[in-house]
Amino acid sequence: PSLVILMLLFYNLTGRVWSFSVFAGHLFLTCIAGIASLRFYSHPEVLLNDNMFSTRLRKFLFFLTCLSPIADIILYSCIYPTYCEELVEKLFLESDGTTVPEYDRQVRWLKWTGILGYMIVAARMLVGSLFWMSLAIMKMAPEHSQLHSIPRMGALVWPVDRVMLVRKVAMFYLTCASIVSLVCFGWALYDTVEYFIGWTGTVRQRPGPYCDIMDVSECMLPFPSFHYMLPSKSSPTGYRVNLLPDLLPPVQGRVGKFDLPFLNEMDGFSPAGPILFYLNGMKEICDHAKQHQVDNVTRIMGPSDIELSTTDKSLTLLLDVDAKELVAHSAEMDDFDPRRPMMLISPARPLKHGHHYAVAVFNATNLTSGERLPPSFGMEKLLLYVNSTDIEKNDIERRSRFLKKVIPALHDAAEWISFSRDPMSLQLLFDFPTASRKTQLETIRHVRNSAMREINGKSWKWSEHVRMNDMKDSDCLADGTNIARTIDAELDVPWFLDGFGQDQRGAFLDLDTVGHRKPDSILGSAKFSIQVPCSVWAGIVSQSAIKSKSIKAVMEHGHS
C-alpha cells in the first residue's frame, strides 16, 4: 500500500508517469518475491509432493525471497526518506520553514508514508531475525534440518485443502498485481526515456491550418500577429486574441495541449512583451556581424545601437501604423538552441495601448555572398506571387490591410523604402494590435484602488496585520557572507482571488469582488522576506562605521 500511495502521490505532484518509476519497479519486485515465497514456503505436505522444486529453482526462489526484504530495508530506511525530505525542503517549504499551503496535504502524505516505511523496515527486520533464529534452532536439532519443515507448525492448524485454497487466492492476487505493476514500470521507463533522453523539441515546421504562413520556422511565429486575432464588436480594439491549444509549442515530455482561456480574453497583445520571428539566413548575418565590424550595410541593431534602429542602417523596423512613425528598439539573435534560432525584438519603451504596430525586415543581405535573403514564404504568397485561389480568407484580409494601410504607413515613416519599386527588399512583414488600456489595466487598477481604500480606512491597524515569523542573523565577517539579517514575515492583504490553500495550485482574480469590496471582506496572508545587506548593517548599526562614514540612503527593490 505504501508503494501505491507513493506512486499516486508523485504522479499527482508532477503529472508525469516517470516520477514513480522507482516505486513501480519496487512494487513489481515485491509482487514477484511474494509469488516466489508462496512457491518456496508452501505447506510441507504440498512441498514434499511437488516435483517442480529442483535444487537450482529452489536457490533461485530463495534468492528472490531474500531480495525483496533487503530492498525494502535499504529503500525505506535510507533512500525514500532522504528523497522525500529533500523534496519537501526544496519545493514545499517557505523561507520561514512553514509548508506552502497549496501542498500541505501532499507534505502530510509524504510524512505519513515515511513513517509507514520505517514500520515496514522494523517488521522486515523482526521477521528476518525470527528466520535466522529458526535456522539456528534447526542446526541444533538435526531432525528439523530440512528447510521445508519450518512451517510445520501451521500444519497443526490448517488442513491441506484450505492451505491450497489460500495459496491459490494469494497467487492469483499477486499475479494480477505483478502484471499491473510491470505495465506501470514499463510505462514509467518509457516515459523516463521520452522525457530525459528522447526529447528533441521538434514542433510543427510546415504551415498548417492554425499556423501563420508568414513565418514557417515555428508554428507560432511570428508573434505577436494579427493572425491570432478574431474580430469582436464588444472589445475596444475591435479584436480578441484567439490562441488555440494547437498553436502552443509542446514542452519537454510532450505534455498534452494547453488551453489558456485567460489570454483569449485580451483584445490585443502586451505593449511591453518581446516580438519574436525568424527569417532563414539571419543567423548567418548575425554571426558574420559578430566576427567582422560592419558599418555601411543594413544590420541588426542591438542594445548599444538603439538610436540607429529607426534609420536606413537598421535591418529590422518597428512601425507604429496609426502614428506612421518608427519606434526605437533593439534586436538580438536568440541562439540558445543553435538548431532553432530566433530573432528577439524589444521596444526601447512600452508600446502604446490600443495601437496598430508592424514589424518589417528590410534589405537583409548575406554579407559573405553579397546576396539578399529571399522573402519569407508568406511574403511571396501574399504580396509577390499572388494567386487568389490559393489564399485563405484571413490572409486575403491581411493582404488588403498590408497594401492599403501598413505599407503606405511604412513608406511615410521610412522614406528610403519603396515596395513598388523594389518589392524583394521587403523580406518579412507582420502586424499586430496592442491591448487597450481598459482591458489590460482596468481590473488591476480596481484591485489597487480597492486595496488602498481598505488599508487606508480608520479601522485598519498595521500592528494587527503584520507578523514576524522568523529572523536570522549572519556573521558579516565570515567569507562569502553578504546578508547580515534575514527577516521572514507575513501581512494580511485584501483578497481578490477565487481560491487559495489546500490543493489550490493556481488562482484567478474573482471579478465579482474586484471593485466591490465590503467592510468585512476576506483577508489573505502574503508572506515576504527582508534581507539586510552587510553594508547597510555596518553603516547603520556598527559604531565604528558611523564614526567614519554613515549611510545616507537605502535603495529598496522588491518583486512578487
Structure in words:
The chain is 40% helix and 13% strand. It has helices at 2-14, 21-40, 44-48, 55-91, 104-140, 152-155, 160-196, 282-291, 377-384, 393-413, 437-455, 534-540, 543-548, and strands at 229-231, 239-241, 275-277, 316-320, 325-326, 329-334, 342-347, 356-362, 426-433, 466-473, 483-494, 523-533. A hairpin with a 7-residue loop joins β6 and β7. α4 (55-91) packs antiparallel against α5 (104-140).
Helix content: 40-55%
**Rg over C-alpha atoms, rounded to the nearest angstrom:** 35 Å
Number of helices: 13
Tally of strands? 12
Report strand %. 5-15%
What is the CA–CA distance across the termini?
A: 40 Å
Sketch the major β-sheet: 4 strands, antiparallel
Order of helices and strands: HHHHHHHEEEHEEEEEHHEHEEEHH
- Characterize the overall form: extended
Mean pLDDT: 79
Strand arrangement across the biggest beta sheet: 5-4-8-9
Protein structure class: alpha+beta
Low-confidence runs: 43-49, 147-156
Protein traits:
alpha+beta, four-stranded antiparallel sheet, three-stranded antiparallel sheet, 13% strand
